[in-house]
Specification:
homodimer, mainly alpha, Tetracycline Repressor, domain 2, 2 domains, 11 helices
Chain lengths: ~200, ~200
């Protein structure tokens, strides 16, 4: 298909959208209240272009949230979550998620305060929750995890505990190491898995 | 001490504040976007009086949140949380909290979307988290719960799981019964307690 002016415009629009989101992720984490103007300048576009893509600050923040979600999903995939014992895979997945999320502490705090409906919030996290669900489901099938509680609940509980660990850590109530240990132990307990110490020695 | 005009004014102010909060709890749960005027009318005060107590809608909603927190704390105290096995006491406490919170589904959803700092949110919930902490601490001392994870973490995890159960229930992803069962089972697993079936037969 020959390139057309319309296709060029669409490609340009995609590039400026990506540049704006890159700039927003960087700037808003360092300075959560930075203005659209600063973001535009860093992205090398006009303020008007920022508003053309994101009519409100809230819409920009939601797009930033989706972008961080994608980044977390990619970090999860890089841990090869379908390999090895499910308990180990889940712990790798949680570590990778936490490491990615902890790159943006101030930004995620800002995003979590956005007025989003619970259903929308649930849907926005589906790239992550689906991956967690796949690992837990695999562990149920191999008998590593017990299957008496509904899968959806176990996924929701795992996510909540991961958020709790991040909050305790960010508020300075627990060290990173304490929070990580508490999270791992608690998730494995809820899943009815062997204690972490034994996790790696379990066969598939 | 003889009554003075100033004391009268303070007593009047307390009464109108209470009337406004009563009205706000009722009205905002039925119609979360109801205006300050409707709340004033129901409370039998002027709009001006509402604004004198609560300069912004956000401040009114936070005061409503604190009031619901007090109501939950009173419901917890009514379950006599220091009596009997700690696991039973904790489950009674969670039931009472959920029953109280479920009276205000729409309002709590609105409140949870308020832009409040994590530390402020943590502090606002202290009447509830302190009570949960006391029961868990008692269970650790009697040996019902294991004490390898920090108390603060166990309290935070319990609260998160209770929120998760409410969300699953309110989103229609679980029935009340399923959510209650999943919550009880999960909390007792994290605490390292015996499964619920055996909970009531454990001695102190």
């Amino acid at each position: 298909m020959p390139s057309s002016p319309a296709r060029h415009r669409r490609a340009d629009a995609r590039r400026s959208r990506a540049a704006i989101l890159d700039a927003a992720v960087q700037i808003l984490d360092a300075r959560p209240d930075a203005g659209m103007e600063t973001i535009a300048a860093t992205a090398g576009v006009t303020r008007q272009t920022v508003y053309a893509h994101f009519p409100s600050r809230e819409q920009l923040l939601l797009a930033v949230a989706d972008r961080i979600t994608e980044e977390v999903a990619a970090a999860i995939d890089a841990t090869d979550p379908q390999a090895g014992p499910a308990a180990d895979a889940l712990l790798r997945l949680l570590d990778a998620s936490a490491q990615t999320a902890h790159r943006y502490p101030a930004l995620l705090q800002k995003i979590s305060a956005l007025p989003v409906s619970p259903q929308a919030d649930h849907d926005r996290h589906s790239p992550i929750t689906e991956r967690i669900g796949q690992v837990i489901e695999r562990g149920r099938q191999t008998g590593e995890f017990d299957d008496r509680l509904p899968l959806g609940w176990l996924v929701a509980a795992t996510v909540k505990l991961a958020h709790s660990a991040s909050e305790e850590r960010q508020a300075g109530r627990m060290s990173s190491q304490e929070a990580e240990h508490a999270l791992r132990t608690s998730v494995l307990r809820i899943l009815g898995a062997a204690p972490e110490e034994d996790g790696s020695s379990r066969s598939r």
